[in-house]
Each structure stands twice: as C-alpha cells, then as structure tokens.
C-alpha cells in the first residue's frame, strides 16, 4: 500500500506538472521494482459522469489479482507477445482482404467472416448474469469478434474445457429458448457465416466459430435474459450456447463480442444504448477498469476528444481510426502523411500496438534517442527494451498520438507506453496496410466507440 501511494504521489504530481505547462515532454517514473501487483486494489477508480444513461460493469485483467477466477498458471511474457502478434496478424489480414475487396472490386476475394480474431490473447474479463435466475458468467471482452457465447451443460470433459464456475445449464433457466431456424435472427446468422445448420427438425439454429488461434466453439444459437448489472437486463439476448469447444484451456466461461456486426452485444442493444460502448483499461493489472454501454449525452461530452470512426467494407466487425502524427517527448516524429494511410484498427485484445513500417521506424528512433541514458537490451520479444537494473526511477518521454481532425491523446506514462520495460509498439507491415492500436496504449483512457455517431472518443485519466 505504501508503495502504491508513492506511485500515486509521484505520478499524480508529475501529472499536474505535465498539465501545468511542462515543456520537456518527459516524466520521471519509479522503476517496476516498486510496482504493486499481488493484491487487488478494491477501491473503484471508475470516473463516469453522474447521470449518464449507461450501464457500467467492472472490468479486470484475467491474470491479475482482481480476476474472479484468477489462475496461477499465467502465460509467460514471451507467450503473451506471441499470442498478441498472432491475433494482430489474423485481424490485419482479414482487414486488408476487406479493403482489397473494394479497392480492386475483385469479387473472387472471399473474407472468412466466421473467423474471429484469436481469443487466447484476450486479457480483460467482465462478469454478467445469464438466465433466470441469473447465473454469474465470467466473459472475455472482445472488440474483434461479434457473437457472444458461453459453455453450456450438458457437455462432457472432451467437448468443454474445465472452467471455474459451473457450466451454464439452460434447463435451469425459465427464460432460455433456442432460436428457431425459421427466424430472421437465424437467417442473419447464416448470412454472416456464423451459422451451422439446423437441428431438431428446425427448432434449433446451430452456430459455429473458428478463431484465428484455432480454437472453436459450436452449439445452439439461443435466446436468453442477460443481466448486465443488478436491475439492468437485456431480454431476448442472442448468444451461442456452446456444447463443443476446442482450444486453449484458460478457465473463462465464455466471450462477449463487441464488434460491429449484428450478432454483437452492442448492435443487439442499440435501440437502448445507441450502438455505443466504452471501456477503460486500468493502468495496472491489480486495478479494475470498466466496460460501459451507451454514450454520454450529446450535450455533455466534456472530457472527450473525438476523431472519425471508419469501417472496413465487408468486414463489419472492426472499428478503424486514422493517425496523422506521433510525438515523442513533445517533438513530432518526421514522417509523411502517407505513412498513416493504412489506418489503425482499435482493438481490446491485441496487446502491443502494430504500427506501419515508416512510422514505426521513426518512432523507434525517436524513442531510443529520448531514452539514450538507459542501456538498451539486445532484440528479444520486442526490439526496444531497457535494462533498468540499478535505477530507482527513470525519465520516460511522453508519447502523443494525433488522429484525423487534430485530436491528440497523451498515452499514460509509463503504463501506456512501456510494457515490461519495453516500448509497447512493434512494426506491422507496409504503410498502406492496416495497423492496430493495442491495449497497452489504451490504459487509463476511456475509449468510446460511438458507431451511431461515426466517431471514437478518448477521455484521459478515466480509471
Ligand atoms: C457533464 O459531465 C461532467 C464530467 O464529465 C459532470 O461533472 C457534469 O455533472 C455533467 N453534466 C451534466 C449536466 O450531466
Ligand atoms: C463428448 O461429447 C461429444 C460431443 O457431444 C461426443 O462426440 C463425444 O463422443 C463425447 N465423449 C464422451 C467421452 O462421452
Ligand atoms: C436481420 O438483418 C436485417 C438486415 O441486416 C436487419 O434489418 C434485421 O434487423 C436483422 N434481424 C435480426 C433479428 O437480427
Ligand atoms: C426471444 O425471446 C423473446 C421472449 O422472451 C421473444 O419475444 C423473441 O421473439 C425471441 N427471439 C428469437 C429470435 O427467438
Ligand atoms: C542489467 O544491468 C545490470 C547492472 O548493470 C547487469 O548486472 C545485468 O547483467 C543486466 N541484465 C541484462 C539482462 O543485460
Ligand atoms: C530518481 O533517481 C535519481 C538517482 O537515480 C535520484 O537522484 C532522484 O532523487 C530520483 N527522483 C525521484 C523523484 O525519485
């Protein structure tokens, strides 16, 4: 606790200095040896404005001490980065196929929309109540896929992986019903390539998803009451009741899809919440953030800076923003506007930001120059990592991202810039291909995906 307080005193005082006319663009931060970690900080740091027409759920890191079923076998740093990179490649490839499909009007390009992004890299979970009476379900939050699902009883140990909570049992819920085949909902599911045929003489609509990491879920497309918070329910929520799962055994109960296709929770609840959602990923895994449905009223978006949201033709899932510049230590990196033409997908499940070649090269050089006082480690899982052994604090440059329309956000220092003492960026590929803004950069910001108004908002210091 004492060290937490110290972190706050140092960070908070520098925060005020930084916002009171700091000209240097650098922030001194304690090194990680003083970082808390093992204990969940119970105080909620959520700072949503009062009276906002939203529902908000606590969101925690699945491998952190705040996780409801926190397992001790965490993936190594190398493994986390491997998963993040695999997810990113899968998403970027689907996105660039979608873009290519319209660019050359090549009708031969088929986009596997039934593929979700990898799920093994997903890191943040929320707890919802499913059924009547409501049964708590711990779900991975995924902005890179649409259809939500949970593991359902009956399911034997080969078809379902072990999870901490009891399996959701539809026979014990008074509001559960399979979605019948002849409904629009089932036809739409099939049209979106998530469908998997009909069973029980047309009474049950099947679904199937294969994710980029090879994991799969299959079962019955179902209709159920979903409790987002006490007293806040969604009736007729459609999700997959999974009876056949393959893939990593990570002890979560299922997934909540927040992508832009009709199957997603966000789109299903758009008549209530306007197709908008936001989240704040906490600075550290020992803290909680939030996931909220709904946008602030148009009259009160104080604290938010907005930029245009664009979408990829034929790939409804992803949300795209356009970078126009990056500053390191208060100085713009020198790259032509064409360096950012590929666009950036905002993603909650990719860890490290994937930046196109020209911009990445310039960012890496500027960051290394600004950090020249510290020993650079040889290239490992990431290429810009430091050895801070022997330093009680380090001076880290601020990194600011500017988006189309001129909106600039300062990444949190150090938690939005550094991951395990490494620059939380890596090279994605050619400049005209899409990149990804990963979840480390998003920490402490409220990121508002307001598809209804075609914009993305950022609000600093939100959790
Ligand atoms: C608008 O939001 C701010 C903070 O985000 C809050 O302090 C204020 O009370 C809100 N105003 C209204 C009218 O809701
Ligand atoms: C488990 O369930 C699957 C799918 O329902 C089935 O194919 C398999 O034979 C079952 N295995 C055992 C050991 O019962
Ligand atoms: C099915 O898709 C159509 C066309 O996109 C849409 O208007 C309709 O609301 C969808 N219905 C359901 C139940 O998802
Ligand atoms: C889901 O259930 C509700 C009632 O609980 C019903 O009104 C609705 O039509 C059902 N939707 C589908 C797609 O089965
Ligand atoms: C980091 O620096 C310390 C002190 O200079 C040194 O002893 C250690 O070997 C270095 N570690 C690595 C991985 O280079
Ligand atoms: C940072 O570390 C240096 C020496 O490494 C020390 O002189 C300075 O007081 C420290 N600053 C803070 C804010 O802890």
What does this structure look like?
- The protein is of the alpha+beta class and 463 residues long.
- The protein has two domains: 27-35 and 299-459, Beta Barrel (Cathepsin D, subunit A, domain 1); 55-291, Acid Proteases (Cathepsin D, subunit A, domain 1).
- Helices cover 17% and strands 33% of the residues.
- It contains seven helices and 30 strands.
- It has helices spanning 2-19, 77-103, 184-191, 265-268, 270-273, 357-370, 439-442; strands spanning 26-30, 55-61, 115-116, 124-130, 135-142, 149-151, 177-178, 195-199, 204-211, 216-229, 232-246, 254-257, 276-280, 289-293, 304-308, 310-312, 315-321, 323-328, 331-332, 344-346, 353-355, 393-397, 399-403, 408-410, 418-419, 422-423, 425-427, 435-437, 446-450, 455-459.
- Strands 4-5-12-6-11-10 form a six-stranded mixed barrel. Strands 16-17-20-28 form a four-stranded mixed β-sheet. Strands 19-18-23-24 form a four-stranded antiparallel β-sheet, covered by helices on one side.
- Strand 16 and strand 17 (315-321) form a beta hairpin.
- The model is unreliable at 1-23 and 102-114 (pLDDT under 50).
- The protein binds 2-acetamido-2-deoxy-beta-D-glucopyranose (6 copies).
- One 2-acetamido-2-deoxy-beta-D-glucopyranose binds at residues 156, 158-159, 244.
- The site of one 2-acetamido-2-deoxy-beta-D-glucopyranose has 4 residues, from helix 3.
